[in-house]
Design brief:
about 350 residues; alpha/beta; Rossmann fold; 7-stranded parallel β-sheet; 12 strands; about 45% helix
Length: about 350
Amino acid sequence: MILVTGGAGFIGSNFVLDWLAQSDEPVINLDKLTYAGNLENLAALKDDPRHIFVRGDIGDASALGELLAEHRPRAVVNFAAESHVDRSIHGPEDFIQTNIVGTFHLLEAVRAYWSGLAAEQKNSFRFLHVSTDEVYGSLAKDEPAFSETHRYEPNSPYSASKAASDHLVRAYHHTYGLPVLTTNCSNNYGPFHFPEKLIPLMIVNALAGKPLPVYGDGQQIRDWLYVKDHCSAIRCVLAKGRLGEVYNVGGWNEKANLDIVHTVCALLDELRARADGKSYREQIAFVTDRPGHDRRYAIDARKIERELGWKPAETFETGIRKTVQWYLGNQDWVNSVQSGSYQQWIEKNYVGLAG
């Protein structure tokens, strides 16, 4: 079996669902269930004996040790992280504790477990750390996309904390021989995405008749990766990746934020038209840009294709249509995650925005 940390979050839950859809190998799912961890994401596995959920924190060293000793996984896939830039600006401490200190405790527990394995199990064990392209900083419009050798230049407390965790993972490989793999992915989108991020926020606000807040001029460029493609890349790296290596995972879809919003509006106009016949684009509202907002990210994903044969199955056009359709068909899920604390977060970040 494998141990997945952060497996009730957006990417983690998609990974667990996809893993068990394609394999009978059981998953131990460790998640702290913070605001973005949602067991409703895993409702389809409620009675599935292959899915063992444990509520816990990667910062709890003794609990980690007990979990590893009891279940004896052949691999650990680490999704557990605080992951939202805006939240890291307003409250960086949680990001330091989870992404740096938590990763340290997880690495220590895994190192102790791995050191005690028999030779054959030790050789086949893997620790896969899931990270982000934001550790590389920001690109000018005409600069080459981020490769795996690009210098780390994080610009937010979130990206700095993820950069630190990446360095810890690398150090545990080079110092202790821990068999690690790291993936750095571009912006994910798809089912179960907490509606504080751009695409689900636009869908939810549009349907509620609220303004669609766009930071600054909306020309910040990101590479967009459909979450199920990201999950397939992780499975591929886990199975075939070279030890100690980093693999960038991207969708080959560079889009400006405003273009993303326009695309979402067009799909909603088609699939769930406004009662007054007007376009959802009329709800777009430009708001004050956030501090230190990186202008462009872009992933060069040639290494993972060249070495491991992986490339995304979805184009942005196919992936975004599937995503909008999922949100339209899962309004109960959307309603359940829109708690009072979520509303307070929106008010705090999009200052002066009515509705």
